[in-house]
Amino acid sequence: MAVFAGKGAPGGTIFITENGEILAQNAIDQQGQWVVLPEAPLSAGAHLLELQMVTKDGLTVRADISLV
Fold first, then answer.
1. In this predicted structure, what is the pLDDT of residue 67?
2. Residue 54, pLDDT above cutoff 90
3. Backbone phi, then psi, for 46, in 5-degree steps?
4. Exposure of 32 in the CB half-sphere (CA atoms within 13 A)
5. Are 14 and 25 in contact (CB under 8 A)?
6. From residue 52, how far is each of 1, 15, 17, 18, 45 by CA, in Å?
7. Pairing of strands 49-54, 60-62
8. What's the pTM?
9. What is the rounded distance in angstroms from the CA atom of residue 59 to the CA atom of residue 17?
10. Hey, what's the torsion of the CAs at 30, 33, 1, 44, to 10 degrees?
11. CA distances from 37 to 11, 21, 49, 61 (A)
């Protein structure tokens, strides 16, 4: 099972994606903290995961790094 956590813009939403498909998402709380737990475990093998945030104003911000 994977667990992702971090800080972002309060009131926004965090998305974890792979190949353009959303694996998991969660709201960012008013302190800017977020935790994302995918509903299903990742399959065995390598994965290229990307993180993006959509602010409460609708601005999409992609992380400048990817996770393998």
1. 67
2. yes
3. -80, 145
4. 3
5. yes
6. 20, 5, 8, 11, 23
7. antiparallel
8. 0.84
9. 17
10. 110
11. 18, 15, 14, 20
Say which residues have a Cβ less than 8 Å from residue 5's Cβ, sequence separation at least 6.
33, 34, 35, 36
Residue 47 contacts by C-beta under 8 Å, 6 or more apart in sequence? 18, 67, 68
Residue type, 23: L
pLDDT tens, residue by residue, 1-36: 788 999 999 999 999 998 888 999 999 999 999 999
Both structure tokens of 8: 């972002």
Contact 52, 61 (CB under 8 A): yes
Q: How many residues comprise the chain? A: 68
Return the structure tokens found at 4. 């992702």
Q: 28 with 9: CB under 8 angstroms?
A: yes
Residue 55 structure tokens: 């602010």
How far is Cα 13 from Cα 41, in angstroms, rounded to an integer? 21
